Amino acid sequence: xxxxxxxDFHVGRIIETDNGPIDLFDxxxxxxxxxxxxxxxxxLVIVSGDISNHGNMEDYERAKNLLDTMSLPYYVMPGNxxxxxxxxTLFQSDxxxxxxxxxxxYTIEQHPLRLIMLDSxxxxxxxxxxxxxxxRWLNDRLSEDSERxxxxxxxxxxxxxxxxxxxxxxxxxxxxxxKIIARHSQILGVACGHTHRDSVAxxxxxxxxxxxxxxxxxxxxxxxxxxxxPRFEPACIRLFHWTNDTGLVSHLSFVGTYPNGLTEGVPTxxxx
Length: 272
Ligand SMILES: [Fe+2]
Ligand SMILES: [Fe+2]
Known about the structure:
This protein is an alpha/beta fold. It has helices spanning about 25-35, 55-65, 85-90, 130-145, 165, 175-180, and strands spanning about 1-5, 15, 20-25, 45, 75, 105-110, 115, 150-155, 185-190, 200-205, 205-210, 215-220, 230, 235-245, 245-255. The chain is globular, with a radius of gyration of 18 Å.
């Protein structure tokens, strides 16, 4: 089973650079094209939040129309820049979002790897939070199937990553999550976005994956900073490859071609 994670599009944001403005929607088009050309194709795509920068409907519609050009099932969840109401309005008809309750959290059951989508949005704040109701929901979902290998997705990393700026807007009550996650040994990993950087951590007796943005990065600031500036590093997606034999293996796949990259020795696809 192959799962792709794409995150933090921020559609609607235009970033000024020395070489002119960059519309993040154009960057997202390249990332979606990259996904469409992946071989093998993922079984499904997880979109882990911050779809729109301002939460407005026009930007969600642009993002949805683009995502719909993939012939792949995809599943959305909210980030701190998103509005649950807008996501509901636009994506409810796709059939997987919960129809009741405040939170946009659900499980994806029809594959050998079970996926749990946990809503970490604290409305009006950039940091995240998992309230008592969401902690109970997570514990119930994990308790109802303790055998099947499971990946948990949430927008905000629940641990400090030694990135002080991003750490100040992590999911604040990660210690409560640790108690639940560490008790359930079927969890192969927890995957987040939000920091716009790649990090991997040993956390809650599992692996915490933090996936870079599909459109732009922030600098690697491992010391305290007042503010943080966008950078244009290669956009990327994360892949989770799972088989019964190998367990979970994860890769980053970078979008675009680079003039100084090696071109010799690129493998040619087999013709038979
Ligand atoms: Fe973001
Ligand atoms: Fe975010």
